[in-house]
Amino acid sequence: MKNANLNPIESNFFYRKKSNETKLNSFIFSVHNKTLHNFISEKILYFRDSTRKLILRSPLFNTNTNLLNEGVLLTTFLMLISAAFLFYELQPSFEQYNLEKLNSVWGVSFLILSVSLFAYKTSFFLFKVYLYLKYKSIRSVSDEKLPTCTIIVPAYNEGQLVWETLNSIAESDYPKNKLQIVAIDDGSKDDTWFWINKAKLDLGERLTIFQQPINKGKRHALYHGFNLGIGSIFVTIDSDSIVKKDTLRNLVTPFVTNENCGAVAGNVRVLNNKKAMLPKMLNVSFVMSFEFVRSAESVLGSVLCTPGALAAYRRDAVLACLPEWINQTFMNKPSDIGEDRAMTNMILKQGREVLFQRNAHVLTNVPESYKSLYKMFIRWGRSNVRENIMMAKYVFTNFRKDSKVGARLLFFNQFLNIVMTYPMLFFMVFFVITHPLLFLSSTLLSILIISSFPVLFYAKRYSFSESVWAYTYSILYTFGLFWITPYAIVTAGKSGWLTREIA
Q1: Is residue 267 within 8 Å of residue 360, measured between CB atoms?
Q2: Transmembrane residues, as ranges (predicted)?
Q3: What pLDDT score does 496 carry?
Q4: ∠ CA 304-306-309 to the nearest 5 degrees?
Q5: Which of 17, 73, 294, 318 is deepest in the core (most CB within 10 A)?
């Protein structure tokens, strides 16, 4: 009984030392029932707030998820290998089909068109490989040379994630006296404003916050941030994105080394790629889109789109086109999508270069469901149509003192993709109806061949086990998302964000 008078600290120590003695355990817990109550309450709160994380981390969940992922990948390889075998077995049918085409005018015309397109696409791909090999990231300059920078984070229904985004920005190794952070709540319907205020309490004067009374759209939120910003460089970061410590300094360095640089695109990777399959596929796709395609575009000084997840703009370049950008219309309707592509286009039109920094990383959330994915792609597709029309108005003028060939080639490639959308769609439908087995085998074999490049590219830079998702993604896109571009073209005049829902 001498231990009954121990203070809580001594009692806890005594409990830890004698934890294997059940009698003493029960005695100590009965004496310190208030401490026990607090302990249990804390664990209950932790369990309530972390239920989802605990489920995701449980062995059963991970086992089921891994089995499902492995099953999908196994099915993918079985489909591709079977298609290659079927293609081999159907060679007589392919030969007969080609002979039939050669005996008709339309068949010969189609063959000439197909060969020409294949030759062009192959040449353009090799050209991009050459540009990629020439690309080099620009290493960060010293703190003294770094410019003043305003970080703008527009948020809508992001909840706690906006707080994590703002904290990742605050933890950057960018000089604190040269960094202004601005968070704009775009009339959220959830607790986003609460988390922005929490970030304000944590960061103090380093963070400027503003709440729009109603939801006006991301473009208007950014517009308010541009007007509040005092830095010579504006950086926009999505509120569901996390930056690395050296991201900001790497991102803005090209403005110091290149006086004609008007904008810089960051390197976007997927944040939520550890659980759902779609993010795993998109992670590989993003590496191709950014680290290969944008690297090539950067060598030409003509990156066509600075991503909303992470982009930097020279203040003077933004202010020069800000009135046109905020008042942009399409088919007499205000443009409420594609604000990043529009800003990039307007800065290119000024004759400035738009570059890519592979060493400026950001992790961002991507859709985990098919519905959210196709809505995001529809929005991107509509923006692509709109901005290609805008680019056509200046790309063949004397808009830049330096070489304009690269920008024109990139525009022509995108324009050709849009123009050929419906002819290729009609041919695909006709081929499916008349020769379904030939279509299936040749299409899957093409996926196996063409998708091997992103697989090898990703495997060399990161991981082979993750790279094989490129095959699955290509199958999904070919058979499940092929309709998006045709639909986006005919609905280019429609407005709406489509994916802005309560998190």
Answers
A1: yes
A2: 67-88, 108-133, 409-433, 439-459, 471-490
A3: 72
A4: 150
A5: 294
3-state SS of 7-57 is CHHHHHHHHHHCCCCHHHHHHHHHHCHHHHHHHHHHHHHHHHHHHHHHHHH
CA–CA distance, 67 with 188 (Å, rounded to integer): 38
Q: State the Cα angle at 412 between 410 and 418, rounded to 5°.
A: 110
Beta bridge partners of 152: 182, 236
Q: In this predicted model, what pLDDT tens digit does every residue of 180-212 receive, in sequence order?
A: 999 999 999 999 999 999 999 999 999 999 999
- Rounded CA separation 254/61 (Å): 44
Give this prediction's pTM.
Answer: 0.84
Burial (CB count <10 Å: 0-12, 13-18, 19+), residue 341: buried
Look at the block and give the residue holding tokens 């299936």. Answer: 440
Amino acid found at 200: K
Residues 459-476: pLDDT tens digits? 999 999 999 999 999 999
Q: State yes or no: pLDDT of 105 exceeds 80.
A: yes
How far is it, in rounded angstroms, from Cα 412 to Cα 424?
17
What's the rounded Cα separation, in Å, for the pair 332 and 315? Answer: 28
Q: Check if the beta carbon of residue 153 is closer than 8 Å to that of residue 182.
A: yes
- Encoded tokens for 450: 């063409």
**Angle subtended at Cα 132 by Cα 453 and Cα 307, rounded to the nearest 5 degrees:** 90
DSSP string, 167-225: HHHHTSSS-GGGEEEEEEE-S-SSSHHHHHHHHHHHHGGGEEEEE-SS---HHHHHHHH
